[in-house]
């Protein structure tokens, strides 16, 4: 009995100390932490303002809400890791509560593109739809699957099929060519096999979620590294794939994200495309 009494006293002491440390009814570390609240942050969002936002050392994540009303409910969520994500907080028609819609990462998407996506999501909500559920309904078909389908079904009949396939694989699937030597009878034949590199680019991404801005960012990278003409060939290749997907209705795609992109999108003007001179008769004979 005496042993049980001393055990009970020890247990009560442990519970008292735990209650003290947990901040329940006493001043403790957690109660002080509870008193430190972060006010709701509202700012007029711009690309430069978003770049300047820093993680909060107190909270794992916080949201900065846009005050421009373009549209209402648009914000940027900043996590402790520094990742910034565009979000939209709104209530679908006939729903009893607001929902949070993730629009995309601020590191890869400009504010103007996020505003457009937010308006599109609001239009879905006005029809009583939940944009989060609509995203899940999309058939998740990768860009790489579309590209392989297009190259198999369409390119063999095209005059420049091999050249287009080369731009698709190198510029959009992140593949590199490997030459292998094979023998056919007494004759050696070199064949090219394309293998995946570390950078898959668009290969594994859901095609329905690739935006015009994603394509432009990739084209700008190609233009900086290999020039405007290489970017023009890459644009032609990706335009073919998305047109093929839209025409056949794959993954619910209706409009190609590359439909509005032109040569000027990669820095080429009409004067640059014109012939600089005409070949002479001697040059034509030499050819």
Strand content: 15-25%
* Number of structural domains: 2
Q: pLDDT average, as an integer?
A: 80
CATH topology of the largest domain: DNA polymerase, domain 1
SSE layout and pairings?
Blueprint: H1 2-22, H2 29-35, E1 41-43, H3 47-52, E2 61-66, E3 74-79, E4 84-90, E5 99-105, H4 111-126, H5 131-137, H6 143-153, H7 161-171, E6 175-184, E7 187-196, H8 212-226, H9 228-248, H10 270-273, H11 281-286
Parallel strand pairs: 1-2
Antiparallel strand pairs: 2-3, 3-4, 4-5, 6-7
Helix pairs in contact: 7-9, 8-9
Question: Keyphrases for this structure?
Answer:
287 residues; DNA polymerase, domain 1; elongated; alpha+beta; two-stranded antiparallel sheet; five-stranded mixed beta sheet; 2 domains; Double Stranded RNA Binding Domain
Structure characterization notes:
The protein folds into two domains: 41-137, 2-Layer Sandwich (Double Stranded RNA Binding Domain); 143-273, DNA polymerase, domain 1. It has helices spanning 2-22, 29-35, 47-52, 111-126, 131-137, 143-153, 161-171, 212-226, 228-248, 270-273, 281-286, and strands at 41-43, 61-66, 74-79, 84-90, 99-105, 175-184, 187-196. With 287 residues, it is of the alpha+beta class. Mean pLDDT is 80; it is low at 1-38. It is built from eleven helices and seven strands. Strands 1-2-3-4-5 form a five-stranded mixed sheet, covered by helices on one side. The longest helix has 21 residues, at 2-22. Helix 3 links the parallel strand 1 (41-43) and strand 2.
């Amino acid at each position: 009995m005496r042993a049980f009494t001393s055990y009970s006293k020890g247990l009560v002491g442990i519970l008292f100390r735990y209650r003290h440390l947990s901040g329940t009814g006493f001043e403790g570390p957690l109660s002080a932490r509870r008193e430190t609240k972060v006010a709701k942050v509202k700012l007029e969002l711009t690309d430069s303002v978003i770049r300047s936002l820093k993680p909060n050392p107190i909270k794992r994540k916080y949201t900065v809400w846009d005050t421009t009303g373009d549209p209402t409910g648009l914000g940027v969520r900043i996590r402790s890791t520094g990742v910034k994500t565009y979000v939209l907080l709104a209530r679908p028609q006939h729903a009893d509560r607001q929902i949070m819609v993730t629009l995309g990462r601020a590191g890869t998407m400009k504010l103007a593109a996020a505003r457009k996506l937010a308006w599109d999501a609001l239009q879905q909500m006005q029809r009583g739809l939940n944009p989060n559920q609509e995203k899940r309904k999309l058939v998740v078909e990768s860009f790489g699957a579309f590209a392989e389908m297009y190259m198999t079904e369409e390119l063999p009949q095209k005059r420049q099929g091999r050249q287009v396939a080369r731009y698709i694989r190198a510029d959009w699937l992140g593949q590199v060519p490997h030459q292998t030597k094979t023998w056919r009878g007494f004759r050696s034949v070199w064949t090219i096999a394309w293998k995946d590199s570390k950078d898959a680019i668009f290969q594994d991404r859901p095609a329905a979620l690739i935006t015009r801005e994603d394509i432009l960012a990739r084209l700008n990278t190609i233009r900086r590294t290999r020039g405007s003409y290489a970017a023009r060939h890459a644009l032609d290749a990706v335009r073919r794939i998305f047109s093929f997907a839209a025409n056949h209705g794959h993954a619910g795609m209706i409009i190609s994200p590359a439909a509005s992109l032109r040569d000027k999108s990669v820095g080429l003007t009409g004067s640059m495309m014109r012939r600089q001179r005409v070949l002479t008769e001697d040059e034509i004979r030499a050819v």
